[in-house]
């Protein structure tokens, strides 16, 4: 059509020219019609213009008959061209209209430029509108009324989330999901449509999705990769397209990094020597966890990693492990930083890593080994043995064991003075041994208490003797100095060379007999303590070997499942460490046989040669990599290690039973009573647990229908509470206000967890604790010195802001607690009359067990009060009895779950006390390589309120003159 119109214009032009040219015009038409012109194009402008004007006619089939000669045609065309040369094209074609149009165009352009200068924005918008091609979004009519019905959404989540296909009926159309989720949108149009689309973005700028229109339904699929909005666009059968006025929300839920917590014995743990450390961990992720690793770094060395657990997509992972830094080859003063990392399995946005806080282990400088400590004790023993021999030989004018008598004195007094000086130096050496251990640790509180008692007794006798030996001139002692025996409070003043009026040989003789008896008892006791430490040192190595075997079993099972090369390398390191420990045990056994620290009957020790051979074989099998052979060799090694441990334990326990019979009988009797109490308490806890499960099932049944919607609303409130608490500025993080706000934040985090676990009873208590913390924070706000200024505001304004934030948080907390109470039925309503009667019976039994525990505590105070290491037995039993009374009160109120938790915790306390009595070590060597446990992280599910009370008590500041003692107490707890 377009080319035809051009041909018609050309014909009209030629027709006008023909009228003006007369017969020449006919010749031009004939020349064009006779065929393609072969004339030269170098003619005049007129010929060129005319030829161009008649070009379109050449597209008509050539009318020239085949009989006409082409040469003749070309000659005719050449003549026509020659005739056109004198003509002027401007006379043939008028240019006036073209000039007028050009001037009009220039005028319009000038007006447009002027308007652009005066109103650039308006002109710019006008030009943009004039030149812009409307999009579907702009070209559609806007409907304020719905154009589609309820929307059906089908979610297909990414595989890593572990979520199944989810269908949401009767939705508003808002789409909320994790990134990478495929969503199918289905709806019914409210007007007949032949085409439908989803317009993405506020103004459709993010593209269009074509929807399927079939049988009166619209369906479209999209992959959610970013947040935004979308609108439905419909094209009716007749008329203009229409779109929605308001869009539907597209929201990408952020896949947060895993939340990771680490629990250790202390944030900063100082150890005398490297020891195994118990590390607890917990990790949680929205959609699934991958690997959980322990990451540690020695000083500035590169980080190393230890796989703790592969969660395989589980949303929660927790556990404990015993990590031994000793294999890192730590030297004195080394610092080890360690934390836990957990990765999720997000393969859409990339795996994210959650990191716990960092804990530290510091290896103290200048620590001595068990052999070094025993050598120092042996030095004290030999010195006291010599003092005993000297006193048995007195009076003998030769002085102490052949030492020359000072020239200032002769006779009995000189001999007594020499013996006194020698014993004083040995007691001072004992005092220094105890003082050094108080700073460095290693002896253990039981042995330290025994040595302190020994120094006290001997120091008292030396003070009495010094009063009798008093004189007026200094007497040079055998060491030339006076050392303070701080352990026993013995600090002798200078002895003098001449006897004072109080000197009396008969008084010295009367003191001598008691002194000899005390020295004999202390020498025998110290000898037995050294022997016991030697044997229990061997037993502790035996326990380390069996624990190392358990770790190897765990590593081997994980390696067999994952074939992780890092686990294989760790297995090799563990086996090398095990072989080294076996060699160390063999050396200790040989040294014990060569010494005279224990009698011959306790030197019958097992042979470690076969054990070393089995460990070597295991090392070789690891290089070959056959898991079945490794497992078989590991089992055989384990049997030998357990047999070795049993023999070493029997030696240590038999020696203790023979050399410390009286205290062993007392401890054994009380252990039996505590074991009976523990058994009765665990039996009662089992019955209470059954009652608690029945009660929980009844509560779940009653609230099941409304739980999902209720939890959604409560979680929204908890999120608002967390946000509000995060806005509170408390100033100094060490003040009381900061501590209370942090407690409220911790309670809020626990609320989130408890709601996820649907533990509403504990959630109610947690909300009450949060409210109490906020009440205390409000009271202490005016006392806080850290809120004097806040972002440039005066102190009063800062306090007003904090008060407002605390008030809103307190109101939210109270609302959450009230909601839980309103949802939960009363405890007595969830039990039948028979079950309530059973709970009352259990409360009576619990009260009776509590009374027996109290009586046993009083007995322990009388019989164990002076035994080192068991001074706190009475207090532990009183604490267990108090929890039993709390359990009885909960049972009377039909609160079975709270009662069961208190009962289990009381039973665990009794079990810990029984274990402490059973494995008590006077020598302190048993725990020298035992793992440093997490304080309070036992297996019982004690109420968090009780744990919080313990943590609060640990934070309380002790009086100034007791702070060192309190610090040492907590240091002892983690040794």
Kindly describe this structure.
The protein is an alpha+beta fold and 975 residues long. It folds into 6 domains: 2-96, no CATH class; 136-253, Immunoglobulin-like (Sandwich), CATH 2.60.40.10; 265-363, Immunoglobulin-like, CATH 2.60.40; 370-503, no CATH class; 532-592 and 606-655, Four Helix Bundle (Hemerythrin (Met), subunit A) (Up-down Bundle), CATH 1.20.120; 669-919 and 948-973, no CATH class. Helix content is 56%, strand content 13%. The protein has 24 helices and 20 strands. The strands form 3 sheets. Strands 1, 2, 3, 4, 5, 6, 7, 8, 9, 10 and 11 form an 11-stranded mixed sheet that branches. A hairpin with a 7-residue loop joins β6 (193-200) and β7. The protein is elongated and about 175 Å long.
What portion of residues belong to β-strands?
5-15%
Q: Which stretches of 5+ consecutive residues score pLDDT under 50?
A: 36-64, 396-409, 471-501, 788-793, 921-928, 937-951, 970-975
Mean pLDDT across the residues is 77
Distance between the termini: 101 Å
Question: Can you count the beta strands?
Answer: 20
Structural class: alpha+beta
Helix content: 55-70%
Largest sheet: 11 strands, mixed
Radius of gyration computed on alpha carbons: 49 Å
Q: Outline, from the CA principal axes?
A: elongated
User: Number of helical segments?
Assistant: 24
Counting structural domains, the number is 6
């Amino acid at each position: 059509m377009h080319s035809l119109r051009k041909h018609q214009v050309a014909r009209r032009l030629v027709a006008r020219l023909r009228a003006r040219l007369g017969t020449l015009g006919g010749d031009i038409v004939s020349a064009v019609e006779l065929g393609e012109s072969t004339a030269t194009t170098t003619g005049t402008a007129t010929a060129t213009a005319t030829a161009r004007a008649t070009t379109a006619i050449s597209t008509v089939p050539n009318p020239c008959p085949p009989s006409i000669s082409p040469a003749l045609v070309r000659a005719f065309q050449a003549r026509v061209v020659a005739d056109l040369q004198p003509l002027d094209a401007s006379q043939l074609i008028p240019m006036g209209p073209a000039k007028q149009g050009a001037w009009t165009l220039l005028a319009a352009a000038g007006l447009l430029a002027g308007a652009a200068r005066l109103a650039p924005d308006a002109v710019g918008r006008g030009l943009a509108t004039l030149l812009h091609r409307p999009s579907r979004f702009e070209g559609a009519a806007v409907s304020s009324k719905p154009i589609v019905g309820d929307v059906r959404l089908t979610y297909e989540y990414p595989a890593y989330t572990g979520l199944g296909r989810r269908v949401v009926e009767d939705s508003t159309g808002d789409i909320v999901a994790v990134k990478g989720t495929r969503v199918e949108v289905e709806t019914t149009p409210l007007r007949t449509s032949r085409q439908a689309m989803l317009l993405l973005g506020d103004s459709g700028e993010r593209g269009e999705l074509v929807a399927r229109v079939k049988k009166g339904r619209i369906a479209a699929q999209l992959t959610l990769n970013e947040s935004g909005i979308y609108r439905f666009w419909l094209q009716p059968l007749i008329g203009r397209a229409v779109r929605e006025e308001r869009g539907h929300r597209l929201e990408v839920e952020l896949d947060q990094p895993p939340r990771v917590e680490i629990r250790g014995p202390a944030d900063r743990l100082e150890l005398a020597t490297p020891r195994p450390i118990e590390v607890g961990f917990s990790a949680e992720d929205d959609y699934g966890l991958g690997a959980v690793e322990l990451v540690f770094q020695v000083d500035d060395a590169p980080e190393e990693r230890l796989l703790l657990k592969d969660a395989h997509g589980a949303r929660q992972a927790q556990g404990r492990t015993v990590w031994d830094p000793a294999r890192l080859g730590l030297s004195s003063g080394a610092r080890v930083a360690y934390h836990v990392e957990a990765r999720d399995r997000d393969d859409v946005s990339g795996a994210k890593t959650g990191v716990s806080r960092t804990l530290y282990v510091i290896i103290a400088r200048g620590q001595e080994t068990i052999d070094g400590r025993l050598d120092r004790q042996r030095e004290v023993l030999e010195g006291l043995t010599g003092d005993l021999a000297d006193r048995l030989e007195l009076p003998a004018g030769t002085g102490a064991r052949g030492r020359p008598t000072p020239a200032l004195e002769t006779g009995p007094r000189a001999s007594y003075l020499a013996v006194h000086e020698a014993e004083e130096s040995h007691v001072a050496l004992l005092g220094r041994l105890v003082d050094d251990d108080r700073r460095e640790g290693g002896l253990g509180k039981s042995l330290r208490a025994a040595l302190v008692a020994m120094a006290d007794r001997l120091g008292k006798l030396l003070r009495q003797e010094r009063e009798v030996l008093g004189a007026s001139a200094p007497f040079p002692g055998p060491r030339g100095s006076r050392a303070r025996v701080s352990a026993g409070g013995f600090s002798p003043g200078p002895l003098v060379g001449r006897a004072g009026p109080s000197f009396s040989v008969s008084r010295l003789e009367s003191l001598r007999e008691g002194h000899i008896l005390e020295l004999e008892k202390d020498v025998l006791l110290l000898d037995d303590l050294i022997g016991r430490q030697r044997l229990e040192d061997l037993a502790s190595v035996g326990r380390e070997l069996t624990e190392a075997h358990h770790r190897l079993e765990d590593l081997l099972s994980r390696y067999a499942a994952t074939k992780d090369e890092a686990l294989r390398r760790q297995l090799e390191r563990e086996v090398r460490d095990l072989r080294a420990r076996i060699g160390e045990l063999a050396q200790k056994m040989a040294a014990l046989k060569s010494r005279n620290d224990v009698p011959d009957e306790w030197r019958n020790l097992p042979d470690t040669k076969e054990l070393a051979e089995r460990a070597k074989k295991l090392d070789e099998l690891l290089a070959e990599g056959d898991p079945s052979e490794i497992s078989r060799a590991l089992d055989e090694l384990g049997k030998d290690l357990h047999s070795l441990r049993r023999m070493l334990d029997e030696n240590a326990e038999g020696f203790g039973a023979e050399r410390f019979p009286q205290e062993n009988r007392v401890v054994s009797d009380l252990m039996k009573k505590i074991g009976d109490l523990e058994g009765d308490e665990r039996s009662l806890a089992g019955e209470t647990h059954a009652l608690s499960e029945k009660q929980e099932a009844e509560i779940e049944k009653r609230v099941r229908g409304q739980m999902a919607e209720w939890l959604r609303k409560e979680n929204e409130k908890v999120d608002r509470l967390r946000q509000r608490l995060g806005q509170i500025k408390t100033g100094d993080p060490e003040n009381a206000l900061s501590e209370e706000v942090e407690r409220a934040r911790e309670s809020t985090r626990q609320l989130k967890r408890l709601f996820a676990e649907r533990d509403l009873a504990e959630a109610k208590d947690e909300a009450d604790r949060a409210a109490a913390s906020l009440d205390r924070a409000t009271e202490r706000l005016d006392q806080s010195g850290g809120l004097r200024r806040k972002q440039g505001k005066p102190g009063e304004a800062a306090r007003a802001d904090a008060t407002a934030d605390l008030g809103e948080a307190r109101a939210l907390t109270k609302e959450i607690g009230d909601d839980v109470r309103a949802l939960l039925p009363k405890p007595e309503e969830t039990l039948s009359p028979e079950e309530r009667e059973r709970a009352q019976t259990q409360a009576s039994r619990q009260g009776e067990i509590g009374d027996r525990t109290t009586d046993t505590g009083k007995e322990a105070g009388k019989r164990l009060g002076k035994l080192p290491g068991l001074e706190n037995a009475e207090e532990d039993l009183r604490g267990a009895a108090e929890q039993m009374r709390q359990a009885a009160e909960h049972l009377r109120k039909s609160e079975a779950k709270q009662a069961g938790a208190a009962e289990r915790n009381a039973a665990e306390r009794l079990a810990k006390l029984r274990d402490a009595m059973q494995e008590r070590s006077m020598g302190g060597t048993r725990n020298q390589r035992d793992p440093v446990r997490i304080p309070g992280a036992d297996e019982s599910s004690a109420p968090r309120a009780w744990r919080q009370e313990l943590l609060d008590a640990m934070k309380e500041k002790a009086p100034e003159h007791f702070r060192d003692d309190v610090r040492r107490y907590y240091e002892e707890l983690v040794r």
